[in-house]
Structures are given as structure tokens and as C-alpha cells.
Amino acid sequence: RKAMEAMTSFSNRYVKVSNTKYCKEPSVPAVVIRGLAEHKVTLGAPLCPCRNYVDKAAEAKAGYWNCPCVPMRERKECHCMLFLTEDNGFAGDSTEMTMEEVDKHT
User: Fold this and answer.
1) 50 assigned to active site
2) pLDDT, tens digit, for every residue of 37-85?
């Protein structure tokens, strides 16, 4: 539960500082946040849950795909659709997700 709270809080902060939005379908950010939290617990890092890896532990250690990943930090490209630019057709108006919403949609 602690990791879920941490990743929800991180996502809510990052969506604001990156000037992005959550997907208009709330299950998308909820599932991604849960996946990040699970990886934080099992791997010690919030490895992107939307990619396939040969060796998750090695990828988490390398850091490239740890959230926010390098493509997101450099180009605002989020493969998971967690952080969307306003011009993305899937972007909603929300910049806040509660723990209750994460639980409800996952």
C-alpha cells in the first residue's frame, strides 16, 4: 500500500511539473500507477510496466525505463499513456488521481 501511495503521489506531482494530463479513460493511469508500484516493491525501482523485458532487474538497474523514463524526460513521450500532452487525442482534463480511483479502476 505504501508503494501505491508513493507512486500515486509521484504521478500527481509529475503530471503537473511536466505540464501534461492523465488519459480521459481513468483506468489507463490507474493500471499504470499500480504497475509502477508493483515494480517499485519487487524491483526497487518504478520500471515502466508497459514494456516487455528480457531481464526486468537489469532494466530497473540501468534506469532508462524507470518512470519518468528517458523518452518522457527528453521528449514528453510516455509509452504507457500515463503522462499525455494536451495535443494528444486521449488526454483528459485531469491532473489528479486519488488512491480510491486507482483502487476502483484496477
Assistant:
1) yes
2) 999 999 999 999 999 999 999 999 999 999 999 999 999 999 999 999 9
Contacts of residue 60, defined as CB under 8 A and 6 or more positions apart, other chains included, come to 39, 43, 44, 45, 47, 66
The DSSP line for 33-91 is: HHHHHHHHHHHSS-B-TTS--S-HHHHHHH-TTBSSPHHHHHH---TTSSSB-TTSTTB
Of 50, 69, 78, 80, which residue is the catalytic one?
50
Rounded CA separation 63/67 (Å): 8
pTM exceeds cut of 0.90: yes
Residue 47 backbone phi and psi in degrees, to 5: -65, 135
The residue-averaged pLDDT of 15-41 equals 97
